[in-house]
Fold:
Amino acid sequence: MPTVHLFSPIPPRLRQRGLRRVLWAMCLGWLACWIPTLARADQSAVDPAPLSGLVSQWLQGQTQVQLPQQVQTHAGQAQPGAAPRVEVALGELDPRLKLAPCQKVATYMPQGMKLWGRTRVGLRCEQGAVRWNVFWPVTVKVWGTAVVLNNAVTPGQEIGPQDLKLAEVDLAESSSPAVMNLSEAIGRSAQRRLEAGESLRQSDLRARRWFSAGDPVRLHVKGPGFMAASEGTALAHGDEGRCARVRTSQGRVVCAQPTGEGLAELTL
Structure:
């Protein structure tokens, strides 16, 4: 009697199709389980409002420590009177950022940044399921009395007393230090065109030329515990802030810093 098969063998091609269908069904089921979870994670993203309060609190303490040093660095000796007035404005984080919940957020100043002008404050999650790090934009304005142009000045034009006045300016508006005293600018030449009402910066002024090549130079020599005076002849122009070669009366050639009219200083 012939054998009767209740189930016919499944061809290999049909078996492969069936396997692919099963795998697709498993993938769709996995996504269906995870989509609600992802939605909940997005809904539980950190609200930036408490973070802005954290940044404000941190800035309040830092401005009392760092800003006096910044004013000294960028403005030098200020005019007598009231201390500079500070304004700090917080920007906004990119609204597309979705930060995961965090139990401990640390605030810090990124390397190379300062509390001066347009800057950034760093925020990083130090205790949370996801460690993130973002930068909050901040603008620091420091209002103080400094030199302002009365009139427009062209490049190379010598600046006179009639061109200048003192007024309140944002000292942090530029990375170049503000000119704080009228005497620093009178008699100097402009590097570029300057408009009336513009705050005068150190970078706007050409360096003073205290002597020219071939001029006699009085040389002050300083060392540990002593100072001596000598004379020499300039072998190069003596521009402020640049080393100038000077031949001493003994025939030695030295590099000295021009410090005044026909005067240079050499530190041993």
Q: What stands out?
A: The chain is about 20% helix and 30% strand. The radius of gyration is 35 Å.
